[in-house]
Amino acid sequence: MKPYLLFASVVTLALTSCLGKSEMPEPIVYEDLTITSTTTPKQKPLGEIVTSKISCILPNTCYSFSGFEVREVGNNNVEIRAKGRNTAKEGTVCGQAQIPVDTVIKFKPVVTGKIILKFYNKNDYFKSDTIEIKDAL
């Protein structure tokens, strides 16, 4: 065996034996949250930021809100899902209370016309908000 291969093997073995199970990061898994209400303005001038207010529920006390999954699924049609993640370490007991979260999603339209925001709870359609973007005055 060549000396540098032997050295690399010894270093690899030493490093892997030093890593304990508790030091390995657990994968982050994002899960869909339940959206309970949305409020989006009916119209806005082109170039202004649109703010849609969204309320959702964390399933228990070990979850935190992470953000939104946003997918454009056609001309001015957007699917939105709220995402959260379980932040508890293994063995943690989570309180079973559902936690309401009020948040917003913001975007700046670049074209005029109607934009349809379709909100989903997992694969279940919840509701749509339609906003008309008009030429700025």
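Above is the first protein from milestone M3; the second protein from the same milestone is given next.
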Amino acid sequence: MKRKHFLILSALVAWVFSIGMMLMPAGFTSGISTQPPSAAVNAWATFLGSNLFAIGFINLFSSYSPWSSAVRAILWGNIVLHVLAIATDVNAYMNDVINMGGLMQGTVVHVVFIIGFSYYAFKKSTRDMSSPAKMSA
């Protein structure tokens, strides 16, 4: 799969999750939460959904860009996002906020995207761009 297609796929997945979080926050959180949905939880789900929607746009528009330090930063930003999301999910599970199903669902998605973004971030063609002289040419 080309980097362009992976970034488009990541944008589509982000949008599917984000639309669910924004339009049906109670339905989205009730399947993974150990407590019934509340107005506060729904507000946070909506807020996080809007951020995820924006990340989808960033990934989509970067998919049309040639290799650059900016594209590499987007790939790294996505890696950091997914690593922190796993840590957040584990913490939420340990504090009885989400159930095991929610933890596993999130972890699988995050690990798949960590592997994908890492593949493109560490690919030889991107390592060749780490020199400022090569990027300015």
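Note on the second protein: The chain is about 80% helix and 0% strand.
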